[in-house]
Amino acid sequence: MNAEHPEAWGALGADLLRHAETLDGHVGYWVGSLYGCESVGWNADDLFPTASTIKTAILVAAMREVDAGRLRWSDTQPVPPPERRELSPWAWFFPTGQTLDLDAWLNLMIGYSDNTATIVLRDWLGARRVNDALDELGLAHTRLLSGCDPTDRELSALRSRYGMGVTTPREMGRLLQMLALGQVASPAATERMLRMLSHQYWDNLIATAVPPTVVCASKSGFIARSRSDTAIVFGPTPFVAAFYTSRLGDASWGLCNAAMRWIREAARLCWVHLAPELPYERPEGWERFLPTGGGFDPEV
User: Fold this and answer.
1) Domain harbouring 242, CATH code
2) Which of 67, 200, 57 is nearest to 122 (CA)?
3) Higher pLDDT, 228 or 90
4) What's the pLDDT tens digit per position in 16-54?
5) C-alpha to C-alpha distance for 173 and 188, rounded to whole angstroms
6) Is the pTM of this model over 0.90?
């Protein structure tokens, strides 16, 4: 079967819709062909908390600043004092005042979802600069809310409801699609972003449905009642997927969380329908080797 054929996407849409009804919570998703016009979605324009998936937008904004000459790859920022850090691997343990360059802070934020690195980059760029970049890309409903101007009533109201950031599945999927197609930054910056996103420590959701020989550039985000993952999958039929959840009945942490299992199965359905010529089954015992976060609660 040619996975670009509308029948493949129609079957995927039907299976994902049935699957959406199995989760206790609010579900939204958008899956689109990277190079074609086919897509499927459900609640794709609803607002969801981004959690750490907004870090992709921070990455894009930083790269655009480097392209424009307002930042250099070698520019540095110091490790902040403990009161301006957030517990997560790994910058929490770095000595105060140690300087790291933009390359290091971005790789920590994206590759390990380091929250202290995110705070440094948020303050370095400014939330407004990140949101201006999103506006320039036509993403009107995706916003970094952490660090926003407290006098901005609209953003402050969104922050009180959604936390770190807000988006829709379609917009975050579109951001990844534009990134992969070289539409958000220079070719060199685009290549570096794809390499960063594909060197993902937290590869325990969409990536588990993809053979390790296939590039999967992803970014996930977890908070107690919302688990989400987004990815560009460079399979036989390259596609972008954005799976978001909120108002979850299961707020537990760990491998058996219902939303995490739901996203893994949704990703498996995508691979089955869009890569039938390259079947893949997770090996026996795969769960034993999923990332642990070094023993921390996985609030990524």
Assistant:
1) 3.40.710.10
2) 57
3) 228
4) 999 999 999 999 999 999 999 999 999 999 999 999 999
5) 21
6) yes
189 and 175 Cβ atoms separated by less than 8 Å: no
If one counts every other C-beta atom within 10 angstroms of the C-beta of residue 291, the result is 14
Residue 234 lies in domain: 6-277
Give 283-287 contacts, CB < 8 A, sequence gap 24+.
286/208, 287/255
| Number of structural domains found in the chain | 1
* Cβ-Cβ contacts under 8 Å for 13 (sequence gap 6 or more): 40
Give the mean model confidence (pLDDT) for residues 106-133. 97
pLDDT in tens, 95-114: 999 999 999 999 999 999 99
Alpha helices in 100-229 (DSSP H): 102-111, 115-125, 127-136, 153-162, 169-180, 187-198
- The torsion of the CA quartet 16, 22, 26, 29, rounded to 10 degrees, works out to -10
Residue 298 in any domain: the answer is: no
**Which residues have CB under 8 Å from 220's CB, separation 6+?**
52, 53, 113, 202, 204, 205, 206, 227, 228, 229, 230, 300
Q: Residue 123: CB partners within 8 Å, gap ≥ 6?
A: 147
Considering the domain boundaries, does residue 300 fall inside one?
no
Residue 296 located in a structural domain = no
Asked if residue 297 belongs to a domain, the reply is: no
The reported pLDDT for the residue numbered 300 is 44
What would you report as the CA-atom Rg of the chain, rounded to the nearest whole angstrom? 18
Count of Cβ atoms closer than 10 Å to residue 258 Cβ: 18
